[in-house]
Design brief:
The protein has 89 residues and is mainly α. Helix content is 49%, strand content 0%. The chain is built from four helices and no strands.
């Protein structure tokens, strides 16, 4: 079971080559200031650099877009008939 979980939840990894001694030392100092390992510090730096602080919420953006242009009135009618179950035969 543990082997299955390790394969299923494998996290990607990268290797950074040719890092200068000065950068490595600064990274270790920064990590120590934040109370984490150098590896955890690199993850935090990368997360901050490439992931947005706030995720784009498509529905909210579309609603705001519609409001800017006065909105749209759609007449919708639901079919009152009961839904038939799907047949997979």
């Amino acid at each position: 079971m543990l082997l299955f979980m390790q394969e299923r939840y494998h996290m990607p990894a990268i290797t950074i080559r040719n890092l200068s001694a000065e950068t490595h030392r600064a990274l270790k100092l920064r990590a120590a200031r934040h109370g984490r390992s150098a590896e955890a510090e690199v993850r935090a730096i990368l997360d901050e650099a490439v992931r947005p602080n706030e995720r784009l919420k498509l529905g909210a953006e579309l609603a705001a877009f519609g409001r800017r242009f006065g909105g749209v009135d759609l007449e919708t009618m639901r079919d009152p008939a009961p839904t038939e179950p799907a047949s997979f035969e």
